[in-house]
Amino acid sequence: MTKIINLRQARKQRDRDAKRAAGDVNAARFGEAKPVREAREAEADRAARILDAHRRDDACEDD
Questions:
Q1: Residue 44: closest CA among 32, 56, 54, 52
Q2: Residue 2 covered by a domain
Q3: What is the domain extent for residue 29?
Q4: Contacts by 13-20, CB closer than 8 A, 24 or more apart
Q5: What is the DSSP string of the chain?
Q6: pLDDT tens for residues 13-22?
Q7: How much helix, strand and coil, in percent to the nearest 5, is found in the chain?
Q8: How many domains would you assign to the chain?
Q9: How many whole angstroms separate alpha carbon 17 and alpha carbon 27?
Q10: Torsion of CA 21, 23, 25, 27, to 10 degrees
Q11: How far apart are CA 22 and CA 33, in angstroms?
Q12: For residue 63, is it within any domain?
């Protein structure tokens, strides 16, 4: 025998689940503490500076 479901309740539950998933994504993106975010950004800047410092200068090869 099949299980009888209320379509209105199923639709509302599906919408609630979608909103909860979107909220989890936003919490992961914007819920980071300021010191943690600044440390992550500083590390990314440091890595970019190190990479630029080790980059070869190919402009001198034209001489």
A1: 52
A2: no
A3: 9-55
A4: none
A5: -PPP--HHHHHHHHHHHHHHHHHHHHHHHH-S-HHHHHHHHHHHHHHHHHHHHT---GGGGG-
A6: 999 999 999 9
A7: 80, 0, 20
A8: 1
A9: 15
A10: -140
A11: 19
A12: no
In a domain, 27, yes or no: yes
Q: Which token pair is 23?
A: 């909220």
Q: Structure tokens of 51?
A: 């990479």
d(CA 28, CA 36): 13
d(CA 29, CA 47): 21
> Could you read off the pLDDT of 12-62 as tens digits, one per residue?
999 999 999 999 999 988 888 899 989 999 999 999 999 999 988 876 655
Q: What is the pLDDT of residue 61?
A: 59
Per-residue tokens: 55: 């980059």
List the structure tokens of 11: 């639709």
